[in-house]
Specification:
about 475 residues; alpha+beta; five-stranded antiparallel beta sheet; binds adenosine-5'-triphosphate; binds magnesium ion
């Protein structure tokens, strides 16, 4: 059942109970008051009749019971005549409670008569066919006898009024229920409008329409719910966007990876086929096998780099204080055999809070790139200095440079500005992607400045250990 109908149904039930009960008590209260008044009237009349009977019987001789009985009958008949039109009936009985006089239509019921004890008026409500009476009874002391006087006052009107009251109230309740149901239906329709709008929004979103938002039409709790729902939908849309971006990036990655695999493999297969199908002279044989060897090496290099990136993505590091000197000496040793190109190192002594091997790998990659970008006789400068936050490195070359529009993309896996140039130098386009991952673990990032034909300057700053921890803590809190 719809929420709207539930509210409506319960409102009608509550209203029906409230109206029914209040009507019943109201009409009954009016009836009770009218009946009390009628009873008072009947009791008063009974006392007056008792007095009238006693007064009228004063002159009746007390010697003969028969005469007395006749006198009582006459007096009673007179009393009844005098009150004709009031609808009052009376019955007078003797000591044995035998009827001396009874009006036409007086009840045969003698239960009240049996209960009369003294001159206190007793009464009961009596129903005779469709009529209601107040039946009273009292003792009359006259002519040295105890007679019993009973009256019956017709109060059918009071009961009829009650029935009429109930009937009017029933009709009124019905009319009010119908009209209030219509009004409540309209009110509930307006009040539940935000719920309908929210339901529509959830359906649209479930069907994939993620940018659909529920319209907020009130500022109450339902309005707030709509607001929160929309905020949640925004967050959801952002997350979905991010996930889609990630999926796209992965697809690009796999595409690039497949392509990078295909190129060397095609060459390897081609040269291997040449070697096995033809007898080549010594020089061609050497060139072919050398090609297979270098392309194989490139594949091996690529697979190691990929492995490094994957491992780095999952790894948690434990930065240790390391003398900056260690990194510069390492670079010097690594490129000592490079006679044509020169590596200059200028650095301040200081402490770097890092994972030694990972940071060595970053510097090696950057210097390697710098040499690859430089001409045969090139110079690369590696600088190191202390900063407020930690220790900074900079690798500068005077090589080919990177075009501005490519700057954003060089850190993507498999991205190479000049593919043939990079491949000829065993490049796979993974070095900078690996550097980014390693620096991310150290809560650092690469800053690349470059000008085509002038050279490239890549720098990064490794924060102090304390800062690393603080940042990590904040990130977790968020
Ligand atoms: P790998 O490092 O995997 O052996 P790679 O050096 O080609 O291969 P990256 O180190 O990721 O890959 O560099 C990506 C690309 O960015 C390079 O192919 C090159 O085009 C460009 N690049 C990187 N460093 C420099 C630089 N110092 N000067 C000019 N271009 C650069
Ligand atoms: Mg590289």
């Amino acid at each position: 059942m719809k929420f709207l109908y539930k509210i409506l149904l319960w409102t009608i039930i509550t209203l029906a109970i409230a109206l029914g009960l209040s009507g019943y008590f109201f009409v009954n209260q009016v009836f009770e008051t009218a009946l009390d008044r009628a009873v008072d009237q009947a009791l008063g009349d009974s006392n007056i009749l008792q007095f009238a009977l006693e007064t009228a019987a004063l002159n009746v001789p007390t010697k003969y019971d028969v005469l007395q009985d006749i006198a009582v009958q006459e007096i009673s008949a007179n009393l009844e005549r005098s009150s004709q039109g009031s609808g009052r009936l009376l019955r007078v009985s003797d000591e044995e409670r035998k009827t001396l006089y009874a009006s036409d239509g007086f009840t045969e019921d003698e239960s009240l008569l049996e209960s009369i004890a003294d001159d206190t008026v007793i009464w009961q409500i009596l129903q005779q066919e469709d009529s209601y009476y107040i039946h009273t009874g009292i003792v009359v002391n006259t002519m040295d006898r105890n007679l019993y006087l009973e009256t019956m006052e017709n109060v059918t009107r009071v009961f009829d009024e009650r029935s009429a009251g109930f009937s009017v109230y029933r009709q009124m309740t019905l009319v009010m229920l119908v009209s209030s149901s219509v009004i409540m239906f309209l009110i509930c329709t307006v009040l539940t409008q935000p719920i309908r709008l929210l339901t529509r929004a959830t359906k649209r979103m479930a069907a994939g329409d993620y940018d659909y938002r529920a319209r907020q039409i009130s500022n109450d709790e339902l309005g707030q719910l709509t607001q929160h729902f929309n905020s949640m939908a925004n967050a959801l849309e952002d997350t979905i966007g991010e996930l889609r971006g990630e999926i796209r990036a992965r697809e690009d990655f796999i595409g690039a990876f497949a392509h990078e695999l295909k190129t060397p493999l095609t060459s390897i297969i081609g040269y291997a086929d040449l070697l096995r199908s033809r007898k080549l002279d010594e020089e061609k044989h050497f060139l072919s096998s050398n090609y297979i060897y270098t392309e194989g090496k490139r594949l091996e290099n690529m697979s190691f780099r990929l492995l490094d990136i994957i491992v780095t993505k999952r790894e948690q590091i434990d930065p240790q204080p390391v003398e900056a000197d260690i990194f510069f000496r390492y670079l010097k040793d690594m490129f000592a055999g490079n006679t044509e190109q020169e590596l200059y190192t200028i650095y301040d002594p200081g402490t770097v809070y890092a994972e030694v091997n990972l940071l060595k790998s970053v510097l090696l990659n950057l210097v390697d790139n710098a040499f690859k970008a430089s001409s045969q006789v090139g110079v690369v400068e590696v600088t190191g200095w202390n900063t407020e936050r930690g220790y900074a490195f900079q690798v500068k070359d005077f090589g080919v440079g990177i075009p501005e529009e490519e700057l954003q993309r060089v850190t993507e896996a498999f991205y190479m500005v000049d593919k043939s140039r990079s491949r000829s130098r065993n490049g796979a386009g993974l070095g900078l992607a690996l550097c980014v991952e390693i620096l991310r673990l150290h809560r650092s990032e690469l800053f690349i400045e470059s000008a085509v034909g002038e050279g490239t300057c890549i720098s990064f700053e490794i924060p102090k250990k304390q800062l690393v921890e603080e940042n990590g803590g904040n990130e977790e809190e968020q």
